[in-house]
């Protein structure tokens, strides 16, 4: 059952289409990530979804309420739909506790007290409640921003690359904690990012956006194993074109290296990465360069290798 939906939403700036007939339906409490490269229309999409930007055409619905755009509504935006982006500003001279309670100004004082206490607890911020934003790490500040947005118990939380300023360790920790808090609260969440790995850490369900259009939507496994286009496939890993075969590709992790075989190449570059060595191999036939994983860290520049792969791992990708 659809709870939060965008129906055929389009948006053009003067000369350019940022969103093209974009439709989406989410059930209550559903989590979705939207992944797309920079400029694919992610921020435009979320601002329209929050009622903060006027679309060229199309509708946004929350339950049986149509979301009014800034041209239709005196005070743009809704308490039910909160948008958080990477440059979200906290009040610099207010403590963590004051920042979180700010949106609850007009609420019953008793409720306000309990709500702030519960958010501080859920997000592990009790220790920091009397600090100013500048006395916190980037990850902690972003958590306070999220707590502030959650204060009024929004139905929908829209996250626009909120982790971009954080280092990887902070980011993974925050995503993990956030997932718990949001699940418990039953909030409906749309998370947009250019980083597929971040998306997969927060949600299983992912929509791929390219040039303002939906390219593919599915769970992580389906997208990885059955990408519809090269663009989708490349979000997971590089892909190597198989010589003399039309639109047939193989991933670096699906190539095996042997001392015998048919497809011969030479290692021309070798990089020591966290989980495996990454090799660049120039194929003898045609001179094309493949990227291949070497999990045993066995091969070096100059080595001759034969490349093998299973037919079932071959991706057939057009466009
Ligand atoms: P993303 O968040 O995925 O990077 P955006 O929604 O910010 O994408 O932008 C989508 C497209 O619309 C881009 O090509 C961008 O240059 C263009 N765009 C965004 N905002 C404006 C604006 N205010 N005026 C003109 N063009 C814009
Ligand atoms: Mg953006």
From TrEMBL:
Keywords: ATP-binding, Nucleotide-binding, Transport. InterPro entries: AAA+_ATPase, ABC_SmlMolc_Importer, ABC_transporter-like_ATP-bd, ABC_transporter-like_CS, Mo/tungstate-bd_C_term_dom, P-loop_NTPase, Transp-assoc_OB_typ2. One of its GO terms (molecular function) is ATP binding. Residues 4-236 form the ABC transporter domain. Pfam families: ABC_tran, TOBE_2. It comes from the Bacteria. Gene3D superfamilies: P-loop containing nucleotide triphosphate hydrolases (3.40.50.300). PANTHER family: SPERMIDINE/PUTRESCINE IMPORT ATP-BINDING PROTEIN POTA, SPERMIDINE_PUTRESCINE IMPORT ATP-BINDING PROTEIN POTA. This is ATP-binding cassette domain-containing protein. It comes from Algoriphagus jejuensis. The lineage of its organism: Bacteria, Pseudomonadati, Bacteroidota, Cytophagia, Cytophagales.
């Amino acid at each position: 059952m659809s709870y939060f939906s965008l129906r055929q939403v389009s948006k053009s700036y003067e000369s350019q289409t940022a969103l093209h007939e974009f439709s989406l339906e989410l059930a209550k409490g559903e989590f979705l990530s939207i992944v797309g490269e920079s400029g694919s229309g992610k921020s435009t999409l979320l601002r329209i979804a929050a009622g903060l930007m006027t679309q060229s055409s199309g509708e946004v619905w929350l339950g049986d309420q149509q979301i009014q755009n800034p041209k239709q509504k005196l005070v743009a935006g809704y308490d039910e739909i909160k948008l958080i982006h990477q440059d979200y500003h906290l009040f610099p001279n207010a403590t963590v506790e004051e920042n979180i309670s700010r949106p609850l100004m007009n609420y019953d004082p008793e409720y306000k007290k309990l709500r702030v206490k519960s958010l501080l607890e859920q997000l592990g911020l009790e220790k920091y409640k009397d600090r100013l934003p500048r006395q916190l790490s980037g990850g902690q500040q972003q958590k306070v921003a999220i707590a502030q947005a959650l204060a009024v118990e929004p139905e929908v939380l829209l996250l626009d690359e909120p982790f971009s300023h954080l280092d990887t360790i902070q980011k993974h920790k925050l995503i993990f904690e956030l997932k718990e808090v949001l699940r418990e609260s039953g909030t409906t969440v749309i998370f947009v990012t250019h980083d597929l790995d971040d998306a997969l850490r927060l949600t299983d369900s992912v929509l791929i956006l390219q040039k303002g259009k939906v390219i593919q939507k599915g769970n992580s496994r389906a997208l990885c194993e059955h990408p519809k286009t090269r663009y989708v496939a490349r979000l997971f890993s590089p892909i190597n074109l198989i010589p003399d075969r039309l639109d047939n590709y193989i991933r670096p992790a699906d190539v095996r290296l042997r001392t015998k075989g048919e497809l011969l190449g030479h290692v021309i570059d070798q990089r020591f990465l966290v989980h495996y060595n990454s090799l660049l191999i120039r194929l003898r036939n045609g001179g094309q360069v493949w990227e291949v994983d070497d999990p045993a860290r066995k091969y070096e520049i100059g080595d001759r290798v034969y490349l093998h792969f299973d037919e079932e791992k071959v991706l057939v990708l057009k466009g």
